[in-house]
Please model this.
Amino acid sequence: MLVGPTDHNDFSQALVDPSAIWEVVSNAIDVDCFSFHVNGLTHGLPYRFRLRARNALGWSPDGEPSNAFFTHAFLPPTPPEAFSKTHHSLEIAWADQAADLNDMIDMKEYFEVQVCVLRKYCAHDAIPEIHIETWDVVKDRCVERKCVVSNLSALTWYCFRVRSWIRYRGWTEFSDPSKPIQTLRRM
Model:
């Protein structure tokens, strides 16, 4: 499967740029495969795809380019940060990324917040390692760009991530994980 950028001057037509170099996405797609997930595409840009087949005689000619596919135009939120701490709760907040041109028309209806307990994290190690194991949903219909996470353990490290629900579009990708955040000591 090959992917190629398109002419950015006319998004409605998304014409193939004749000088663009087609990039090989995979050369080992199973014959019975009806779909394929392509990683690493830039947000908000159109892409076209074309296929070639291979048999014992070699590669077939390139197929016709597909219609343009647009990657999700909305970027994920910034990583959450803690603004208030107790021994059993954290108040976290996040924002839209500065590069997200679509945040001027805010179609984000709500957010999903997830937490990961960092059981093996130690901030005093020479090079602290973050082992992210499992993510648990804290709140899946958070309307504001902040959330109070309760029922946490004292002196425990946590990591958070968040994603936006976009009206008519669905979920964005998750934000990058937050920096490790520790709850306070029980008094």
Q: What stands out?
A: Residues 81-182 form a domain with the Immunoglobulin-like fold (CATH 2.60.40.10). The two ends are 60 Å apart (CA to CA).
